[in-house]
Amino acid sequence: MFTEVLEKAFNEQLKWEIYSAYLYIGMAAYFEEKSLDGFAHWFKAQAAEELMHASKFYKFILERGGKVILEEIPKPPFGFSTPFEVFEYALNHEKEVTKRINDLMELAKEEKDNASQIFLQWFITEQVEEEASFNNIVEKLKIAGDNLQSLVFLDKELSQRPLDLNQIFLLTKA
């Protein structure tokens, strides 16, 4: 059974996971407006992954006897100038998500909630991968600079990311 403090914190993280998807959908739209469909595809896949993360929190809250409370999701920023700016912003966002997951783990330890600690360990590992993925693209964009050929090449590379929309719908019990 959840403590009230953990239930509230897990619901806050649920909101952040949904916000992350919302943010990445907005970033995908930026790239589609620029006809960089590979970049857009990559962010759509990332948004789907974030919704899958949200569904894990949703299910875990309910499995622990908690109540899912959906809060207002803030409007994501817009008006980015370059692909580099978008990915740099997204990398910093992922670093904030990592901090929040680590803070949740510390709270679960304080509350002596072993089940939550085990659940959160997957997210800690996942955040290492998330930050590395974003950082890799940021570094490639630094190398590309203003070279349009490099940008087109990277756009093609990013279009190859698998996009499994079935991942999103983990809310069902099937």
Textual characterization of the structure:
The chain is mainly alpha-helical and 174 residues long. The protein has a single domain (4-168), classed as Ferritin, core subunit, four-helix bundle (Ferritin), CATH 1.20.1260.10. 73% of the residues lie in helices and 0% in strands. It is built from 5 helices and no strands. The protein has helices at residues 4-33, 37-63, 83-110, 114-144, 148-158. The two termini are 23 Å apart. The model has no long low-confidence stretch (mean pLDDT 92).
Tally of separate helices: 5
- Which CATH top level class fits? Mainly Alpha
State the oligomer: single chain
Please tell me the overall pLDDT: 92
The total strand number stands at: 0
Gist of the model:
This protein has a single domain (about 5-170), classed as Ferritin, core subunit, four-helix bundle (Ferritin), CATH 1.20.1260.10. The protein is built from 5 helices and no strands. The chain has helices spanning about 5-35, 35-65, 85-110, 115-145, 150-160.
List keywords for this structure.
single chain; 174 residues; mainly alpha; 0% strand; Ferritin
Secondary-structure topology with pairs:
Elements: H1 4-33, H2 37-63, H3 83-110, H4 114-144, H5 148-158
Helix pairs in contact: 1-2, 1-3, 2-5, 3-4
